[in-house]
Amino acid sequence: MSQPPRRGREMRLLSTSAILGYGFPEASLRAGLDRGPHVIGVDGGSVDPGPHYLGIGKPFCSPIAISRDLRLMLNAAVRHGIPLLIGTSGGAGGAPHLALVAGMAREIARQDGLHFRMALIQAEQDKDSIRRRVAAGRVKPLARQPVLTDETIDRASRIVGMMGTEPFMAALDAGAQVVLAGRASDPAPWAAAAIHAGLPPAPAWYAGKMLECGATPSIPKGHDSLLVTVREDHVECEPMNPARRCTPLSIANHSLHENSSPVHHIEPGGMLDTSECRFEAVSDRAVRISGMRWIPAAQYTAKLEGVERAGYRSICVCGTRDPLLIGRIDDFIATVRQEVAAKAEAFGAPPDSYRFGIRVYGRDGVMATREPVRDATPHELGFVLEVVSRDSQEMASAVLGMARTNMLHTDFPGRLCREGNMAFPFSPSDIEVGPVYRFSIYHVMELDDLLEPFPIQYESL
Amino acid sequence: MALIRDIATVCKSKNAGPFELTIDVVFDSAGMFRRVKATGVLSAALFARLYNVPEAHVLFTPYDAAYAFKATLPRLVPAGDFGDTDVYGCQQHAPLLDVDLPI
């Protein structure tokens, strides 16, 4: 595999899409490869789809879609002799997620006759190691979470650590061409590639911030490919699809993405300060960003994410077009709740064993108690009935079935629609959603050995 | 007077991790950004009122380089917990749209 050329100390990084499995046009990949990138990659996941995927150990993109993207990228990397880096593999970056994508890589290599050295970087944390870190006082809460206790660790279904650049650089040093990592800071693989090539951390991390979402920093926004050129004191962003372009505004907008501060971006090992950044158009579709600074942290920290099982969920979707019911919906719901509580208790589900929610779309289904509009009179209302049972899927479905029946048939004063209150779009009407998880660990751990929580295995294909 | 929906180029919300919501309002020129900033209406106090959270829990940051204002505040419910209505947090921006600015 060729070393990145150092002419003018420039590194070109190609991101195919926002997430592995979101898809990208093959023409965009070809256009990117024509620019001679030194590295190709894509972010493999996100915490954004919620706690379920980390808990259950499955991806939020379909394996069919992931495999399609991975096949094109593996072929591109091997044919062009450049590294392929993927962080947060399989969506949540736990051991089963990484194993899924690694298995796909092996299968694609076999089918397509590709040969490469692959590194797998684990991010799943064993509970004993976390207990030891807590006991040593080296785990701190984030976002007003409680102090981490042994009980919370015991209850956790899965815990991952979020790696920084160091494990990726170790894998590149060891000669890996394909690096599949578990949970990683989104920009970390990109930052690692640029720092590994000798570029400073400030533009390296900034490049990663742009590349982690593919062509999202361009307009029209879409899941597509982005090329970022990293130099000593700036980066340049350009989308590979001629239908898109980066503008100073589109880049500035993306720099606000998913971060609590627009100017202080906390990363493993330091903070990217973008307060003095300048955005300049270098063409009608490329933008140069300069002025970023990297402030190394006094203490290296890596984030921990963990989830625990909260029960089992069943749901049902229905709606009403009856103005008489809509006019007294709060009273109606209160009556339904009483009926359901009594009948569920009668078959063995006491009120403290489940939670019953009625989401009212057309009223406050999107913003709940933060909804400011309280005086609208909609002509129809949609409902999502949900039951989360502490005990079993069977019991969740039993209580939900009672809820559905009572939404359909419960009488109300002035009722004319005596055959039924609800329109159900589906048969069967009730859906078993499976285990429900909740985020229970959102902390940072202080690290001295930056590789120890992220062991690397190598294999030759 | 002008509504944010009529003068902003971006008004959006999104998770900043599972426990926080971050809301951005972006303008298309330094001139408009400065005029909006000068009104003082976009502030931690405004977001505290619109989202019913203590002002001390709102991190409000104007970002001059991007002609943008950002506010980060606690989610109503952690992402994916029972009762969460918006796992990605990307449909919580609407109360901003009708804020009237004296410009």
From TrEMBL, chain B:
It comes from the Bacteria. Residues 4-99 form the DUF4387 domain. InterPro entries: DUF4387. This is Acyl-CoA synthetase. The lineage of its organism: Bacteria, Pseudomonadati, Pseudomonadota, Alphaproteobacteria, Acetobacterales.
